[in-house]
Specification:
Pfam families: FAD_oxidored
Structural class: alpha+beta
CATH class of the largest domain: Alpha Beta
CATH architecture of the largest domain: 3-Layer(bba) Sandwich
Strand content: 15-25%
CATH superfamily of the largest domain: FAD/NAD(P)-binding domain
GO molecular function, one term: L-aspartate oxidase activity
Keywords: Membrane, Transmembrane, Transmembrane helix
InterPro entries: FAD/NAD-bd_sf (IPR036188), NadB (IPR005288)
Radius of gyration: 22 Å
GO biological process, one term: NAD+ biosynthetic process
Amino acid sequence: MNELRTEILVVGGGLGGVAAALAALRRGRRVVLTEEYPWLGGQLTSQAVPPDEHPWIEEFGATRSYRRLRDGIRDHYRRNYPLTDAARQHPALNPGAGWVSKLCHEPRVAVAVIDELLAPWRSAGRLTILQPARPVGADVDGDIVRAVTVRRLDTQATTTISADYVLDATETGDLLPLTGAEYVTGFESRAETGEPSAPEHAQPQNQQAISYCFAIDHVDGDHTIDRPARYDHWRSVEPDFWGSPLLSFGAPDPRTLRHKPRVFDPNPGDDALAVDADQSREQGDGNLWTFRRIAARDLFAPGHYASDITLVNWPNIDYFEAPVVDVDDATLRARLDDAKQLSLSMLYWMQTEAPRPDGGTGWPGLRLRPDVVGSADGLAQAPYVREGRRIRAVTTVVEHDLSQAVRGASGARHYPDTVGVGMYRIDLHPSTGGDNYLDVGAEPFEIPLGALLPQRMRNLLPAAKNIGTTHITNGCYRLHPVEWNIGEAAGHLAASCLDDDRQPHEIQAKQPLLEDFQTLLTRDGVELRWRDGVSGY
């Protein structure tokens, strides 16, 4: 067994973990960062999900370091890819011209930019990255986490890392059960939270769907994959609330719940530079090909791409048959494999049976692109996890803190201890309890420091989607820029506690300390309040 000692341990190298590590490193602290998948970046990279962002992201509503990540992605394309002159000169370059985001791109580009951001600290010996490694144990003394043990997935060697502060930036809050921290999963009851959309009784196993995303293009030839083992099962599934078979181009509209047919039209020859992704005006999923397109061939030199590349993250690959959090390892493996079978079945159906506009069936020219997602089977390295464990926090964000229907013209709740901002509709995908979409308009919101503080643990901090939200408010606090902001605030908090010999709860509870901390965040480029006049959708 190996042993390491550091000041701040960040377990989980997704967006929150990377942001937390960078914030602590900028503050002069030593950091160990662990990640179980080959790529750092979580939902942006190993899960292959282009950033879900609010309409004002180009001007405000994100931290300075998140903007550096976004700018770095565009700069990477401008430096390394044969863009057309018009695309290169476009100030808001959207390489994929996808409708889901103003910055749709190949996941590997984000990996390169993240590696660039971390490189100076690694070469200086201030940052140690253990990868691929998964947490398997913890040494806890009362309310203090003394150390965490991780196991490498390639060699099975274990390393125990002791640290002053431990940040859980895993995708499902893996450190919470390992450390004995109090947490919640699934739906809370309306009696507990008072939320209008909550059920009467708590449903801890009722969790949002996961998805195994994949990238495809459309080229000459027959690229049909082998018939998936579970194809007959998934071809027969037709959920009561769906309005069509799951393997189709139709799905419920999240906002109306009425069945919504979609079009699938590969390489439509649209004007890629004219795409203006704005979810407040246009959902953009009319043509599934362009919805999450990550490479628009017309933005690059003729012949560079034989086809557009699109990312399949559609409702039809949402796996909501059973939960994947707080189940034993064998059950987890079986359910993840079933989720993979759903995604492969969707692809096989598109290649062989999907109705074409010309009256034919199937697009055998659809080609799976394992090189784009960095895996052997062609699916993303990791499942897209929308919801995991959430801490029992000092402050829990509830639906009526930001729901448009409840808040009206008053806007979202203002928190005196805000450490950042975010915006997205409350967007819950179908869940393992058999629930349809829950989609609620929201107001631009703040991130309270109290939501980053466990009720009992003293040096364990959440740094991703595992903060003090509910099942419902997790639906808008789980997106890319918000997760980054959460991690950045957690990294700063741990560094400030070390600088001043304080505890996290003390900084939140004492006004002078809180104001000093918020001043520090502002100085480092963290926006704490929304601009006047900004309303949600």
